[in-house]
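Re: weekly structure request thread

Next one in the queue (424 aa):
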Amino acid sequence: MDKIVIEGGRRLEGTVRINGAKNAALPIMAACLLLNGPSRIKRIPNIDDIHTLSKILENLGGKINRHDDGMLEITFTDGENQDRFVAPYELVSKMRASICVLGPLLTKRQKAKVSYPGGCVIGQRPVDLHIKGIRALGAQVETTEGYITASADRLKGTELSLKGEHGTTVLGTCNVMSAAVLADGTTVIEDAAREPEVQDLAHFLNKAGAKISGIGGNTLTIEGVKELHGVDYEIIPDRIEAGTFIIAGAITKGNITLENVRAEHLTSVIDKLREIGVEISIIGNSIIVKSSNIYHPVDIATMPYPGMPTDMQAQFMALLCTVEGKSIITEMIFPDRFMHAAELRRMGADIRVEGSCAVIKGSPFLSGTNVQVSDLRAGAGLVLAGLVARGTTNVHRIYHLDRGYERLEERLSKLGAVIKRMNE
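Done, posted below.
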């Protein structure tokens, strides 16, 4: 098992190129189950979550080849592997996004058996809306022995809502949309997720021959088609990776340039950072972070897109721990997603968690120590804190980080951080 060791106090400078979006790549890869023939998807990040889903798709009969330029070629052929419809526990348990094979499997092979998903521990994330959606399309669904088993000779278009207790469901929208593209008739999804990754899946499916309208809004209309074909496609840049590097520049009062970024996907993040006092410039597909200002405390509430992403909450917490004054973070998506707060307190942060709120009294100084990563984005927050902490920070259990960030320590090192991966 590896750890990351950081010597804090270095100002970051230089240029970093942002990879393709993990959260767009995964449902798009799963949607290749629907297509007849090869698809070539560009800018797929080389991370553990991609490797896990690749194994699941191969287990379902897919042929997958990764090219050196980051392109993934995925091939499914109509009429083959119809009897392979099980996504097993030993693979699905590694990440929650594995459940995105449920909809494509069901509509393409008339049956699906998918283990309940695992992944990061960030609070309750039920799959009831996924089940509600595919049941509305006419599927018979049972949940027994840790598996979701669904079957239907032919799905039928319908109208349904995917609104949940904490808002919309991103993976649920992806699953129902993927199931509906080959269903008979028209499906209307109300209260659909609007996230860029959902939009990217819809654009991918349309290029393959689907008929989806309303992309980017809360209502999606899907007219079922007979078949879909393989395509060439480039996924969007990863807005969460971009946000993480922006905060790396901000927390170290650095001067860094991010390439391959869509600033329009980061509006809430950029607006909040500017409110804090971070200097951010946008030039085409690049973002420049250059700041020597005094920062100001702020209040943040995570919300569905286009609001503040819950996946940026830990990174903002790390930054606000270094900003003098009181800031409050309210977690509206996963109210229990504050496990990183205890680790930041080990570094000297003053954080009090009250239900779904974290009250932070910032201080200019954190101290390096040993910290444990509880989930992917918590790990990013702890690494960011380590970049400015006095002394040495040892970040343990970094396999969580490897699920979503490609060579994070190497890329930060090229920007001037004193950071390295070591064997425990």
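Residues 11 and 283 are 22 Å apart (CA to CA). Residues 22-234 form a domain with the UDP-n-acetylglucosamine1-carboxyvinyl-transferase; Chain fold (CATH 3.65.10.10).
Next request, please.
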